[in-house]
Amino acid sequence: MKTQIKELIDEFINFDKSIKPELEAIILCGSHANGLATDHSDIDLCCIGNFKEFRREYRTFKDYEFQLMIAPWEWYHEVISTYERKGNIGTITSMLANGICWWSYNETRWSALKEEAIKFFGQGPTPVSTDEILRIRRRITELYNNFIDEVDELTSRWIKNQIMTVCVEAHFTIRNWWAVKTKYQINMLRDLDPEFVRFIEESINNDKAVKKLCNYILNPVGGLILSKKEDL
Known about the structure:
It is built from 11 helices and 5 strands. By secondary structure, it is of the alpha+beta class. The protein has 2 domains: 3-123, Beta Polymerase, domain 2; 130-231, no CATH class. A 5-stranded mixed β-sheet has the order 3-4-2-1-5. The longest helix has 22 residues, at 153-174. The model is unreliable at 228-232 (pLDDT under 50).
């Protein structure tokens, strides 16, 4: 992390007194904590303490955007142990697991919360349900049918983009991988499943490859829901 950013965070914390009375820990999270920050990245801070409820606030300080996630210890525990385990959106779990404690009046409690987040993040999301898999199959099948029926070139390309987006999201869900932001998806998939990325690349310039992409995602869970006419 750049020294400039470290000094900026310290200066901001000393400047912003609005949450100090209840505050027990400030955790640097997101891209500035995991080394993926760019010039346009917000600075994400989890502010933990004796607060009544969760609230999200934004501050602009010296041309930088700060995002504050202000909540009690109990809220963070509930989110990582129960709420985010229901799907594959592990935003808070990931933030805490990879977070850097900037300062704390209760380091023992923070260490326990971080260990818990690391444990749940390592376990992955709860496996996807049969109903959710069927919903995914129906959604991709509907998009694929619209794609092959469409005669307008612009609309066809637009639908193809939707298919690729939905297939990427479905792949993370079906494989029980934690979802990541759009800007990280392809790089992560290059590590997790390079063959899938190859299908994405082929689909961009080759309409016939779109069905291969859909089949790659859905064949392990039942495939496209084809009509009787297509089965013949």
